[in-house]
Amino acid sequence: MIDRAHAALAKATRWHPWEFVFWAAVAAGWFLLPERRLLVNEIAIAGLFAMSLDLVLGYGGIVSLGHAAFFGFGAYLTGVLAKYGFTNPILDLISAAIASAALGWLSSFLVLRGSDLSRIMVTLSVSLVLFEIANRATWLTGGADGMQGLMFDPLFGSYEFDLFGSVGSAYSIIVLFLLFLAARRYIGSPFGWSVRAAAANPLRTAAIGIPVNARLIATYSFAASIAGVAGSLLAETTQFVSLDVLAFHRSADVMLMLVVGGAGWLYGGLIGALGFKLLQDWLSGITPQYWQFWVGAFLVGLVLVGRERIASWPRRLLRR
């Protein structure tokens, strides 16, 4: 029985051929689109952020409308460290990951106390509280003006962040891939399967001796850490931090990315971020004033038709 369980876990975590194609296409995009590397950097950061929300929502079953709290916290922490002379990007990234995980751990006790509705309100409240702190603490965060002109050391002493996003986009893609591997390992482990069980049926999971809250707290903290890394990447690659990183639309946008890509599989956040950012870039170039209307219309159509039905159309055409 144990051997059969190990074989089933190994099969579930095995890499599929299309996954190699996906990551090869990501790497090829950096080489083939040198003039769009700033957009590539945005997509990589948004994908990392969406993947962190997928861990909370898709696997942990925790609905969050304030996930930008950890994203913005990581960005501001990196900005403050750079402001006071701690300009090593790798160390700042690690600091943001640890501090965001600690914030996620502290807030998780409030989030897990109630039902889905109260969880939504608590996550949103944490984000709003951090937004107001960043807005009021002008001596530290710059307030409404933000933190501009942040300077960071070259990566590994050799690669300086440039205005064209060449180094920044490659840096973001590498960090995204490494954290994707970590998240994939986390979800595919027996611990990760117990998290899925806790989200699907907490009463039955608790009845067989699995500590449900401990599993969800660990997942929430891990996701917060990844979101903090995404915010830190944004601060380092753009050298700017503003209140926008804690705004409500940041949490709403990442939720929409999961709607587009689908929650409950790690590639959903990545594909959703890719589709959302490309659609946003394309529509804003066509109608700079009304692009949000068309993005909203697309999302309404996606919900009405159904993502599964749209995904089945290519298969039907191939059969015919």
Structural class: mainly alpha
**Strand segment tally:** 2
Number of helices: 15
CATH topology: ABC transporter involved in vitamin B12 uptake, BtuC
Based on CA atoms alone, the radius of gyration comes out at 20 Å
Looking across the biggest beta sheet, what order are the strands in? 1-2
Taken from the alpha-carbon principal axes, the silhouette is globular
Largest sheet: 2 strands, antiparallel
Helix content: over 70%
Query: From N to C, what is the helix and strand string?
Result: HHHHHHHEHHHHEHHHH
Low-confidence sequence ranges? none
CATH architecture, by name, is Orthogonal Bundle
The residue-averaged pLDDT reads 85
The separation of the N and C termini measures 43 Å
Strand content: under 5%
Domain count, please report it: 1
The CATH class: Mainly Alpha
Question: Can you walk me through this structure?
Answer:
The protein is mainly α and 320 residues long. It has one domain (2-286): ABC transporter involved in vitamin B12 uptake, BtuC. Helix content is 76%, strand content 1%. It contains 15 helices and 2 strands. The chain has helices at 2-12, 17-32, 37-59, 68-83, 89-111, 116-136, 138-141, 166-188, 190-200, 202-207, 212-238, 248-261, 266-286, 291-305, 307-319, and strands at residues 147-148, 240-241. It has a two-stranded antiparallel ribbon. Helix 4 runs parallel beside helix 6. The longest helix has 27 residues, at 212-238. It is globular. The model has no long low-confidence stretch (mean pLDDT 85).
